[in-house]
Design goal:
Blueprint: E1 2-4, E2 16-18, E3 26-30, H1 33-43, E4 47-51, H2 66-72, E5 77-80, H3 89-94, E6 101-104, H4 114-117, H5 141-158, H6 163-188, E7 197-200, H7 206-212, E8 215-218, H8 230-242, E9 247-249, H9 257-266, E10 269-270, H10 287-302
Parallel strand pairs: 3-4, 3-5, 5-6, 7-8, 7-9, 9-10
Antiparallel strand pairs: 1-2, 2-4
Bound molecules: zinc ion.
């Protein structure tokens, strides 16, 4: 995949991603790195993708610049994650020109309410925020399969002559994800059921925990930017000790200091870093790359 720079005037401008030599019929702008990956999987050579959020960027804090807004004018379709992740969508919608469509992909995916997510927690007191929806729907192979179908339908509506190709790409990608999911289940079977507990910085793996049967210990709650109080910390240390948790997992993009402190205080393993916000780089920028990496790190730390 080569990068074609429409404009080099601003270092922050996003490149359009297209297959070299292919005349893309559809121009799709994305507001989440994993949607860039998915749009390429489903769109193939017929779609040029404008990845507004570059790999590695924090999706919780991204906000489009005026230059990004200008670039959006070149897109036929804009893909957002939805589920309240992008608090700027109202402003973005107001700036769309006639004929442009904004699609919140997460709208078609069943939500994990934070009240339900509490049932996945090893200790309910660890979640500081009440109400609302867990935005991290991308941490589920099944949700990615759903999202692939949503994109195939949207691409087919916007570019009817290629409808069959989009459906076929989505089906092939969904099959690959099914295989990945089966592989993950086989890997996780190496972890004794009572050890299937993920202590991380923020509540980012709710959909993942639901899909693969893990309990969660998000030390800093939903938002890692809200500093944990000494009571939160004490509760986390207590839960980790009481539940005989084997490891704590730092997350890409979140300061690991607090987790390192908890690991040394409790004597548990400080495991390899997980990619929980779709913010991996290089081979870990894709869903499949990040997912495979996470499964391996979890098994490495939790299997006896
Ligand atoms: Zn997150």
């Amino acid at each position: 995949m080569k990068l074609r720079f429409l404009c080099k005037a601003f270092g922050l401008l996003a490149p359009w991603l297209a297959v070299p030599g292919a005349a893309a019929a559809l121009r799709v702008a994305t507001l989440h790195p994993l949607l860039s990956d998915l749009a390429q999987q489903v769109g193939g050579p017929q779609v040029a993708v404008l990845a507004l959020v570059a790999p590695g960027v924090d999706v919780h804090h991204f906000s489009p610049s005026p230059q990004h807004m200008e670039q959006l004018a070149g897109a036929d379709l804009v893909l957002a994650s939805g589920k309240q992740l992008e608090n700027y969508l109202g402003k973005l919608r107001d700036n769309l020109r006639p004929g442009q469509t904004l699609l919140e992909v997460g709208k078609s995916i069943p939500s994990l309410e934070l009240s339900e997510a509490a049932a996945l927690l090893e200790s309910p007191g660890l979640e500081h925020r009440h109400g609302g929806v867990d935005p991290h729907w991308w941490n589920s192979a099944e949700n990615m399969q759903r999202a692939a179908r949503v994109l195939a339908t949207a691409f087919a509506q916007a570019d009817a002559p290629q409808a069959a190709a989009y459906q076929a790409n989505a089906a092939a990608y969904a099959k690959r994800l099914s295989e990945l999911k089966q592989w993950a289940r086989r890997e996780f079977s190496k972890i004794p059921p009572e050890q299937r507990k993920l202590a991380t910085a923020h509540l980012s793996l709710g959909y993942f925990a639901q899909e693969f049967g893990f309990r969660l210990i998000p030390v800093q709650g939903l938002n890692p930017e809200i500093p944990a109080t000494s009571q939160d910390l004490a509760a986390a240390v207590d839960t980790i000790r009481r539940s005989k948790v084997r490891a704590v997992f730092p997350e890409q993009g979140v300061n690991p200091k607090l987790l390192a402190k908890i690991a040394s205080e409790t004597g548990v393993t400080f495991a390899g870093q997980l990619i929980a916000d779709g913010n991996g780089t290089g081979p870990l920028a894709s869903f499949a790359g990040a997912f495979e990496h996470n499964v391996k790190e979890i098994v490495r730390a939790l299997a006896p």
